[in-house]
Every structure is written in C-alpha cells, then in structure tokens.
Amino acid sequence: MTNQLTGSENEAGTPRAGSWMTATARRVVPLGLRQSLIAIVLGLAICFVVILLVASDPLAAFDSFIVGTFRSTYSFGSMIAIATVLVLTALAAAVSFRSGAFNIGTEGQLVLGGLVAAVTAQHLGVTGLVGQAVALVAAAVAGALWITIPAILRVRYRTNEILTTLMFNYIAADLALYLVNSYFRDETSGAVETPPLDQSMWLERILPPSAANVGVVLVIVIVTAMWVLFDRTRTGRRMEASGMQPAFAEYLGIRSHRYLFCSLLGSGALAGLAGGVAILGITHAYVSGFSPQYGFLGITVALIGRLRPVGILLAAFLYSTLMTGATAMQSTTDVPFALVFVLQGVLILLITSQRTGGKA
Fold first, then answer.
1. How would you label 268-296 residue by residue, b for 16+ Cβ within 10 Å and e otherwise?
2. How far from chain centre, in Å, is Cα 6?
3. What are the domain boundaries of the chain?
4. How far apart are CA 26 and CA 154, in angstroms?
5. 150 preceded by cis ω (within 30°)?
C-alpha cells in the first residue's frame, strides 16, 4: 500500500524542518526546588545589601521588609488580596508555558479583563452573587478574546507569540485608556476611572478593613482544578506532551495545534479573570494603572513555583508578603518601596540564567 504523506512530511515520513511541529518544539524548563530556594535566598541577600547601603537603620528596615506583613490585620489582609491576583496571573503563565508557548501578554489581558468586569458590573442590572459571577465570566472571556489573534498567528502562521503577546500589552493599555475616556469615565473624578461599583458587586471582604476577599476561595478552587488537570487527566498530559514533543504527539494522534490554541485561550482567560478579581475585590472601579504589573509579576511567580499549581500558590503568597512588607518598610524607614522591583529584577536574572530544554 502506498504511503500518503502530508505536505509537512518528507519521503521518510518525518516532519520537515519548517513544519508546525518542528517550529513549536520548545518549552520553559522551570527551576528545581533547590534552585528555586537558592534564587529566593540570593534575591533576599542582594536586597539586604541594598538596604545596608541606603537605610539609616538597616536591621529595622530589613525586619519590616520580611515580617512587616504579619504585624497588623490590615497588612496581612492586603497580602492575601495581592496573592489572590498573583496566583491567577501565574497560573495563566503556567498554562501556556507547559504547553510550549510563551504568553507574555498577561498584563494586557488582565487590564482589559478588569475594564470589562467594571463595565459589566456597572451596567448589568443584576447585583449580588449572580452579578459578580457574570462580571467575572465576562472578564475571563475578554482575556481569552484578547489573546485569540496572537494564538491564531502562532498556530496557523508560526508567528513568534512572544512578540505578538508583548505588543498586545501596549495595545490593550491604549485601548482601555481610550474606552474609559470616551465612554465609561466617571465625570466627577479627576482620575481616569469608571464610576464606583455598587457595594453589592464587591467581592465580600474576609478581613476588613483590608482588601482581602472571598476571591481567595475561588483561587484555591482553581488551583485544585489546575492540579487535577495537569497531573491527573489525559487532557493535561496530552497538553504537556504537545508542548514538549509536538512531532511525537502528532505521531500518536494528538492534535498538538488544537491543544496549543486552547491552552493559549485558557491562559488569556485566567489573566482576564485576575483583572476581574482585582476590580471587584480590591479597587471596586476600573482605575487606570490599577495593576502594579501583576501580569509580569505572575510570570516570575510561575517560574519560582516551578509551573506547578501548589508551588505557584506558595510562591505567590511569598512574593505578596514581600510586597506588603516593602510597604510597611517604606512607612517606617527611609527605604523606598522600589526595593521590590530590585528583588523582582534579581529573581528574573536568576531564573533566566537557567537553561531551557531537558528534564523539568
């Protein structure tokens, strides 16, 4: 019987060098547990050196940076609120990374998800849990829609998704600014923001007066679901196989391009949901610049958490502890909050110094 070869195969029946499968045979290899701990310790050590150089009382400043989060209910609740958003953006990054794609556009997806959540909650006409649920679903859909074009370009035309998703961040920021200024702006406010949401649309607080809210429960449910998906289902295994070895996956009958496309949409949906949780749970209105780069921070958290849901949960709480600790340090000493960005930069350098490829 004569072999029927596809256009992407040569006479030996193997994929051509320019085929979709060959072009996508790449993935992120996360740090091992020991490497993650070393990265964190080295990052904190460098931050301590910076504190020694700029603080008049280095020990007090470092003490506030590390344990300041736990000295008041408000700081502890703020840490939980930040971690809630960071877990979602980190999961968004992890979904795409484990599938062999690099979604660097989580910040833009989060911004548009937040705007859509605010507008939906404002004009839906339904309040309470139903209204909150609809607004959050709308945010997730917005995030998925925003990554659709980069996903199509990646799957169909092999366009580098790092570039497209990164550029879409800037488009999203400008689009959100235009939409708020033109259609949804609160005319009574001097800031670029939408009108405040009705209190019935707020995610219920769990540690008032802090911003900690029931979104953390939603996050724990999602983390559990992602753990089951990644480690306990055939879909999760096929998704990861498609990212690690797309040619072999296709040989086994797995449609790698479909898994990649769906993974990118899922990644965008999680990032959009993060924006919705931030709006309904923390700011209670869309405010331009509401995100302190949650999307980019989520990528760091995902890699520190080894792209595993439980690891991401722990890494997010650690990183948010340092963020709120930096706020406490800034209020009690002469060290600025910008120290967090020093830590972020150090961690990124330590993470990206690791090789890609090989065994995770």
1. bbbbbbbbbbbbbbbbbbbbbebbeebbb
2. 38
3. 29-51+76-351
4. 13
5. no
Q: Is residue 110 very low, low, confident or very high in pLDDT (cuts 50, 70, 90)?
A: very high
For 42-90, the pLDDT digits (tens) are 888 888 888 888 888 888 888 888 899 999 999 999 999 999 999 999 9
For residue 213, give the 3-state DSSP assignment. Answer: strand
Q: Is the CATH number 3.10.350 carried by domain 29-51+76-351? A: no
Q: How far is CA 130 from the centre of its chain?
A: 25
Mean of pLDDT values over 148-173: 94
pLDDT digits (tens, 9 = 90+) for 308-319: 999 999 999 999
With b for 16 or more beta-carbon neighbours within 10 A and e for fewer, the 97-133 pattern comes to bbbbbbbbbbbbbbbbbbbbbbbbbbeeeeeeeebbe
Q: Is the pLDDT of residue 140 over 50?
A: yes
- Complete DSSP assignment for 326-344: HHHHHHHSS--TTHHHHHH
The answer to whether residues 295 and 271 touch, using CB atoms and an 8 Å cutoff, is yes
d(CA 88, CA 103): 14
Centre a 10 Å sphere on the Cβ of residue 236 and count the other Cβ atoms it contains: 18
- Spatial CB neighbours of 254, under 8 Å, sequence gap ≥ 6: 238, 241, 242
pLDDT tens digits for range 11-21: 444 444 444 44
Residues 101 and 161: beta-carbon distance below 8 Å: yes
Whether 286 shows a pLDDT value over 90: the answer reads yes
DSSP 113-152: HHHHHHHHHHHS---HHHHHHHHHHHHHHHHHHHTHHHHH
